Amino acid sequence: MKLTIIAAVANHNVIGNENRLIWHMPADLKRFKNITMGHTLIMGRKTFQSIGKPLPGRNTIVVTRQEDFDSQGCLKASSFNDAINIVKDEKEVFVAGGAEIYEQAIKSYYSRKMFITRIFADFEGDSFFPDIDSEKWELIERNDYEPDDKNAYPYAFFVYKRKIGRPKKNP
User: Is 170 contained in some domain?
Assistant: First the structure.
């Protein structure tokens, strides 16, 4: 099984504020849908609650320590490692946030690839994507786009792959 991280990240690695996505970028939403359709998504409770429902055509695993959390239509995992155990027989699984889950995923033994949308704009935020260590991750593709009538900010689609050598297993 391989983990693939997918995220939209603004300047200063901002990914959200007050448990919500700050920008509306249809090109990123379309990319997210095309890449993740038919796969399982792992996300934290706050990210799931910001979306509000399971996404069609994808299985969702919500990582939460809240025992009474109602994840109707989703599987629930009490930790990131529990989520990994649930999906261990799948070929590829996507990690879709938030900050704590990204932090664990980027260090995970199973993480092999990242699809990052960079939004070149400044936003106030309280949730951040971890720094991408160029010693461990190689940029293999970049496509830049200017703002248009649907996407208000300049942006780029990045694809990273883990460099040779496996990270340490999660404790």
Answer: no
Beta-bridge partners for 111: 3
- Asked, for residue 168, whether it belongs to a domain, the answer is no
**Whole-prediction pTM value?**
0.93
Residue 98: give the domain boundaries: 2-162
Task: Give one DSSP letter per residue of 108-132, joined into a string.
Answer: -TTEEEEEEEEE-S----SEEPPP-
70-122 pLDDT, tens digit per residue, is: 878 999 999 999 999 999 999 999 999 999 999 999 999 899 999 999 999 99
- Check: CB of residue 147 under 8 Å from CB of residue 153: yes
Q: What are phi and psi of 82, to 5 degrees?
A: -65, -40
- Could you tell me which of 61, 112, 111 has the C-alpha nearest to residue 86? 61
